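Morning!

As promised:
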Amino acid sequence: MRNTFTVIVREMGAYFRSPIGFVVPVLFWTISGLRFYLDVVGSAGALDAAFGQLMGGTQFWMLSFLLIPAITMRLIAEERRAGTLEMTLTAPVDEGELVWGKFLGALVFYAFLWLPLFLYIAIVLFLGGSPDLGRIVANLFGVLLLGAMFLAVGLFCSSVTSNQIIAAVFTAVVLLGISFLPEVARLFPRVAVVQRIADYVSFFRHFGEFQSGVIDARPAIYYLTTTGFFLFLTARSLEARKWQ
Amino acid sequence: MIEAISLQKRFGPVHAVRDASFRVEPGEIAAFLGPNGAGKTTCMRILTGYLPATGGRAVVAGHDVAADPRAVRRALGYLPQRVPLYGDMRVREYLDFRARLKGVDRRERTNRIAHVLDRCAIVDMKERLVGNLSGGYQQRVGLADALVGDPDVLILDEPTVGLDPNQTVEVRELIAELKADRTVLLSTHILSEAEAISGRVIIIHQGRVLVEDTPEALRRTMRSDLGIVAEVAGAPDPAVAIRGIEGVAHADATAIPGDDGWMRVDITPTSNRDPREAIGALAQREGWRVRELHREALTLEDIFRRLTGDERDA
């Protein structure tokens, strides 16, 4: 527990010491801020649509597929490359604590990207609008759960290579792969169960519930179990050195 | 205390460690000596719990490495080969991070860090980025890291590799100061280094411990069959005369080309004899001119040749 916290603090620091800690927020804030501005200006009062775009529109998905790998690629691949993993894992720390610490550090950084949301809400209130706060909270909840799952996938991809670029590409491929599954399953129309599994595994459908303002336990459980599954795989991948 | 009982480690078909048993007592510095690929690093990684052994048992600071790795790591300071550090952190910040991981109490942390900074002579570097330091300073940060948890056992993998001669001496002195109340195991592939800093040398070759002894005892047993070289002039047939000396098994003389009148004599002494004094006396009696008379230096290769009885291996 204390070790996990120590790792979180170190990872947070590592983000802001590296160009990632500058480039990712600037890109994210510029693009999503511009999107929001255009939607507010062009919406003629339908301000909720602007929030819907911000937290689930095309830009949102593009940024997620692009920026999540950038956030996670360094986490373990760089430790493998530099050999610091040997340093960390010969201190009284176990693989699970390290994985948790790195994951939570990345999640805090991801949550930090969403800080301007409060500013956007304030602006809309100032303009005399009345944003549907309940729906925004549900959206934010979904965004953070989805982010957690994406980060866990990215962390796992970073743990299987010592090359950051490969880690980033692998992460994007896995995420895109999962998102294509329902369409791939449609190629096998006679096997209904394939379609159902693929639909369940795809993160898009679950995300829709949060977007409509519903906080439901079922999609939350989907994201949390998937996150847990990839974190588990990550810890196993760190232990793999022992079974060679 | 470090104790290894017939450790074995296999990586697929490769037997990195075949049978390694040794013991290092508190207050002692032991050196693992062996060529690259001998299994030194693998042994050390097993002792730190980073890699599990395929067979055998290791006990460090009273804890079984396989059964209680966390207790072992709490009592351990480890410096891996090539000193991997987080280059993006400042020295003080990095040591603080490491001290936290090692469970150093919050109240003691500042003092411990100040102590190891001072001990490793990096006080002036404490606000510098680790990644910007020279190799020698990084090595010292690595040592400071190993020491920050005030461990009973230190395992240092090639602590002087990549250092310039001055830095090497400094690091050796630092390690020698540490031994008072600690168990220190370090590895090296340099014979003179093992002799210089350790009270005991553990020679490892192809995954096996060949011998474990004090440097003096090793030197005594190993030196006996080392060759002697003499360069003389003014002697008609020095080899024949030298062969007549007691304690000389064999002698061969060859003219040194382009060096008028000088001859090089290669002498093999009989076991446990040192006929150098007698050779000198002979030269004086016969009126030879002598410009060199020395015993060949003991090399790691000689030791292996002798211990393994395998000429090809050397």
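The first strand of chain B starts at residue 2 and ends at 11.

Hope this helps with the figure draft.
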